[in-house]
Amino acid sequence: MLYLTTEGPDRERGRQHGRAFGGEVIARSLEHARWGEARPPEQRDAAEAMWAWLEDHQRWLAEEIRGIAEGADIPLEAARHLSCCSAIWQFGECTTLGFCESDRGPVLAKTFDIGDQRDVYVLHRVIPQSGYRHLRINWAGNAWAPTGINEAGLAVGGSSTPAVPDQDAYAMPFHMTLNPVLRECATTSDAIALLEAMNLAGRGHNYGILDEHGDGAVVEKAGDRQAVVRAERDVICGTNHYTTEPFADIPRPESDATKSSLARLAWMRETFIEADPQPELTFQALIGALRHDEGDGRLCRRGFLGGHTHYAMAYVCRERAMWVADGYPCDNPFVKHTV
Q: Which of 217, 303, 325, 337 has the CB geometry, 3.0–4.6 Å to 329, for a possible disulfide?
């Protein structure tokens, strides 16, 4: 895991980011993002539409990406590609699990079940000129925010899901969606409302959201569709498939990824929601779940069904803190970082 703090106006923060990792590190990110490979016209058109949406609706993110290009001395088109590329191909198989109440208050966990890109992941402390300061995870050179926590005690984490058909590419690139949530929202209800106001471009996400008051939900979102799954017995959990009526038409392909997604969700539900008696919901129980590495529903995957859980995070909302396992969580310690 790489580390970065940026502070100030958005374009200047981007320059700080670009200067910190310009050269070999961002070159690795561009290789992982398949920069330079020929792209079909429909993908190029989609990328242009996503950029136009950012310029029109979240211009501060476009400014941050411009700053990254300037700081790293790479073409703006390359920096844009780094932030939008994940919208056009399958990316990761992650898990979110949260307890609305525990011995440490509300706690949320997320895994990163990813490929060989682990050498470019950054734990990024963002101190914006306006909005909440927060921690987020991104690649060196891009403006993703698939997970994070802010100074208001709002923790979020996404698990990628299939795209919906016939979507409009003039929308938020899906891996950047949680940026405005972390920057602007203090509560789960704020986050749900903000997400409802945006359409997604590319793939979808199941977002686990938990605030310091113990309000938790999973938001299933893709294209112009959104559904909210409320906590059951003070537990929220999500993987990489949809469970709600608005997404009933989205097929679940026969694949190892689908098998793992179904099994992980079933294990979390059986262990923490359906168990009678319900186990005590504690921070250590959450860490234990991240370290679970047995059976089809294991959350720590060392190649099982093609997945590698290279990182895991656990958030304590009221402490404005996250614990990070740098490597397989079943083998590595969790280290504390604060907003």
A: 325
